[in-house]
Amino acid sequence: MMKKITLYTLAILILGTGISFGQNAHFAMSGVIEFEKTANMYALFKKDINKDNESYLAPAFEAYKKNQPQFKKLQSTLSFSGSKTMFTPIEDEVGYGSFWGDDAMVKQNNTTFTDLATGTFICHKNVFEETFLVKDTTRKIYWKITDETRVIAGYTCRRANALIMDSVYVVAFYTIEIPVSGGPESFTGLPGMILGVALPHENITWFATKVTETTVDDKALAPPKKGKPVSTTQLKETLNAALKDWGTWAQAKLKAFSL
Known about the structure:
Helix content is 24%, strand content 37%.
């Protein structure tokens, strides 16, 4: 009886995703995913231009377009095994010039360990000249799963949409072929690994370029330890105090450091 229940439950889970698999379906439980973060620098630069600064920022924008690429690309990895994941940025070796090339939204500020079994994370976060060690429960994201699918890094993925931080629209693509509810940065909570994330209004994306199934040892999943210990709430309070005189730019920085 137990065998029948298990097989029936598995069949319902697979059918419920709307993605079909053959008899020899394979599920990856351990490995390393390579991600590429892409930022549309022209769109981000243009957002900063308004009637108060256009006299000098508009010419600066035109000069920037002549000398800098439209898209900034950054690499990272996500190691996973069982219920544990580790998101690790790879140091950027390409200079993008100007203030905008070094903006918080287009950098990789976080090294994040997540324990999906306990619903907790530990994040080494670089904030300007300071380093924080954020320990807290994982962000609760209310995903709405759709029928749209696409193939990412050879895996069939399904689309889900959500709203985080009250105003940030998120599009994610996950695959049940990797039955780990993780993803890049702090994005989790779907019935499979997230291989693609887009923040359309923020002009930022993360997409997997390669998935390598391999055994991941405990050292590769060791949580970060350095930084000033804070909770998510304490970090937000610290940022609000530090950015109180930044005007409209403060919200953009808060978004960047809250991902």
